[in-house]
Amino acid sequence: MTPAPDHCFIVNNDPASIKIDTRSEPLNKLISLYHPDSKIHFEALSTEPAFQFYAGKKINVPEMDGLPARGSRSGMCIEASRYVNAVNEEKWRPMVTLKKGQKFGSRTVYRGWKA
What we know:
Blueprint: E1 6-10, E2 28-35, E3 40-46, E4 50-55, E5 76-81, E6 108-114
Antiparallel strand pairs: 1-4, 2-3, 3-6, 4-5
């Protein structure tokens, strides 16, 4: 069986510039997807510096209410995040370590449309 993708993609590769609270930062496009047959578009934008992408290897949704069953790889996840393992990397740690009085925050927008 082919391994299912599960990867972290870095959008901002300057860890020193990543604040603990990014809510006031501009949104960056994480990913833009388009399906030519259905004409469905999808975009994910965030102030987070990275995102995790994984395919639905373990999706197992039975048929219900007239909708067909969904199996492995019938879905995916785009999860805005900080760098994987940041807490264990000295140069990355400030982006995930909350100190007394600080507020953590970020913004993420998911949008989809058919055109």
